[in-house]
Amino acid sequence: MGEVRLSRPFSPRSFPPSQLHRINGKIRAREVRLIGPEGQQVGIVPLNDALNMARQQGVDVVEISPNAVPPVCRLVDYGKFKYEQAKKEKDSKKSQHVGKVKEIQLSVKIEEHDFDYKVDHAVEFLCEDMKVKIALRFRGREMAHTEYGFQVVNRFIQACAPYATPDMQPKVVGKGINLTLNPLPRAKRAKNPKLAEQESEERQERQQQAPTKPTKTVIATDAAEKPSDFGSAPFAQIDLPEGQ
Fold first, then answer.
1. What percent of the chain lies above the pLDDT cut of 90?
2. Tens of pLDDT along 116-150?
């Protein structure tokens, strides 16, 4: 039998992520439909002319519609362009959350760690401009002691008070207590605790990385420790031999 050679196991090659928009010399078209820095229509121009205009104005040529014929490009600083695109995407995600309602289910005998866990989730939803529906269900003989259910619900409302207000006072409807927490306006709402914690960690990290200035050590002397006969003429009381 001949020698058997095992082939090397296949492993997919990793490539760096491609740039979202082609810019400047990476644009492949010879002509582009150009938009000026202020959004004005420049018209169809050769790519070289667009690049020259960008150099003169200290900006970039950014391809924003590659599938158009010819491709649509814009004269803009690419860093500023990426920031504006990221901001639009973030605002779009926030607007998708507006009007959504998330439900949190409670119980009369809820454990403390479970209660805190659900408060954290409610705060997270409220900070994303979503409403939170509180639903507590009484089971069996719990209906005879609804005051315990009110205690749980009122505690939950109080815990979320920096972020929301209830749409009504808690009351028993059927076999449970239902109400909705509406998020406060952002100007009146407490800061998202997750963001606050993240900013605190980043601040501590910056402080640790910052170079520390050398401190001078100052040794204080106590005047009471000086000898009483130590004055401005320390040799005044020394007896010298006569004739010297």
1. 53
2. 999 999 999 999 899 999 999 999 999 999 999 99
Do 120 and 135 belong together in one domain? Answer: yes
212 in a domain, yes or no?
no
Decide: helix, strand or coil at residue 98: coil
Residue 34 domain boundaries: 24-92
Phi, psi (deg, nearest 5) at residue 10: -75, 130
**Residue 31 belongs to domain with CATH number:** 3.10.20.80
Q: Is residue 231 part of a domain?
A: no
Write the pLDDT tens digit of every residue in 151-182.
999 999 999 999 999 999 999 999 999 999 99
Q: Examine the domain organization and report whether 118 and 150 are in the same domain.
A: yes
Q: Residues 6 or more apart from 124 whose CB is under 8 A from it?
A: 192, 194
Helix, strand, coil shares, percent, the chain, to 5: 35, 20, 45
Domain termination site, one of 183, 216, 231: 183
Q: Where are the beta strands (DSSP E) in the chain?
A: 31-35, 41-46, 60-65, 72-76, 101-106, 131-137, 164-166, 172-173, 176-183
Sign of the Cα pseudo-torsion (102, 107, 111, 115, in order): positive
pLDDT tens readout for residues 19-58: 578 999 899 989 999 999 888 999 999 999 999 999 999 9
